[in-house]
């Protein structure tokens, strides 16, 4: 089922069966986690990297809202529930080895807890890390 | 120092001092590793995720050629030395927490060992993972 998003892009929502079939193709690590790259679907900007367990992945695929596993809090974390900076799922990809996910998303507001649009706002320069 | 690349984009090469200063801002995990997202600098395509230790990061920043740490082989792995599918460094970014890197690169040929341009060539569909 696709639901309409405000910028004319459909959010992806899969059935439980389809979500489980996709999760079965993922090689979770020894902690039961997989790294997830979130990329803004239209601009191609890489916004953040976070982690999912199997439950978070299935919740994301069936709910259309990106849900991570917080390693620091050891809890499910549906992005934006506190900040309002939600991530709507557009497409979910898995890599050749099954051990990394790439999500194309629609980011509302800032992806980064610092308020920056992307978590990757520093680059390597001759004086060390510098603002972009 | 910037070196000229064939598609008119300069490759980034930092001094050893600058590379060390950048590496000092990186929070390597308990295995001494950090996940690295490789993105084609001009198209924005996310090509792969791999891992670096401190030595691989410094070699990448000073050498202009992307070098990873292979967890399966437990060895340094300068991308393209065997396949010819090299990655030239354009920009290196670090995220807010210092625990993920994003590299803008110039990919020659396929990033994926399967021969695919990107490792992310499958997406979630109603029948499970399907080709893009």
What features would you describe in this structure?
Chains A, B: One of its GO terms (cellular component) is cytoplasm. 2 copies of one chain form a homodimer. With 132 residues, the first copy, chain A, is mainly beta. Chain A has a single domain, classed as Ubiquitin-like (UB roll), CATH 3.10.20.810. Chain A contains 2 helices and 10 strands. Chain A has helices at residues 16-23, 54-63, and strands at 2-4, 10-12, 34-40, 46-52, 67-70, 75-78, 87-94, 101-107, 122-125, 128-131. Chain A has a 4-stranded mixed β-sheet with strand order 4-3-8-7. In chain A, helix 1 runs antiparallel to helix 2. The interface between A and B is large, with 44 and 44 residues.
Can you lay out the helices and strands and say which pair or pack?
The structure is a homodimer of 132-residue chains.
Chain A (H helix, E strand, L loop, with lengths): L1 E3 L5 E3 L3 H8 L10 E7 L5 E7 L1 H10 L3 E4 L4 E4 L8 E8 L6 E7 L14 E4 L2 E4 L1
Parallel strand pairs in A: 3-8
Antiparallel strand pairs in A: 1-2, 3-4, 5-6, 7-8, 9-10
Any key phrases for this structure?
homodimer, 132 residues, mainly beta, four-stranded mixed beta sheet, 2 helices, 10 strands, 39% strand, globular, hydrolase (chains A, B), zinc (chains A, B), Phosphoribosyl-AMP cyclohydrolase (chains A, B)
């Amino acid at each position: 089922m696709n639901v309409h998003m405000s910028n004319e892009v459909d959010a992806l929502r899969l059935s439980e069966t389809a979500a489980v079939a996709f999760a079965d193709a993922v090689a979770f690590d020894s902690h039961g986690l997989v790294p997830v790259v979130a990329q803004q679907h239209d601009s191609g900007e890489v916004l953040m990297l976070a982690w999912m367990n199997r439950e978070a992945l299935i919740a994301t695929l069936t709910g259309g809202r990106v849900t991570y596993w917080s390693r620091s809090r050891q809890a499910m974390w549906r992005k934006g529930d506190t900040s309002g900076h939600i991530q709507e799922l557009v497409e979910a990809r898995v890599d050749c080895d099954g051990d990394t996910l790439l999500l194309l998303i629609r980011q509302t507001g800032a992806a980064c807890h610092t308020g920056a649009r992307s978590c990757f706002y520093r680059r390597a320069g001759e004086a060390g890390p510098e603002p972009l």
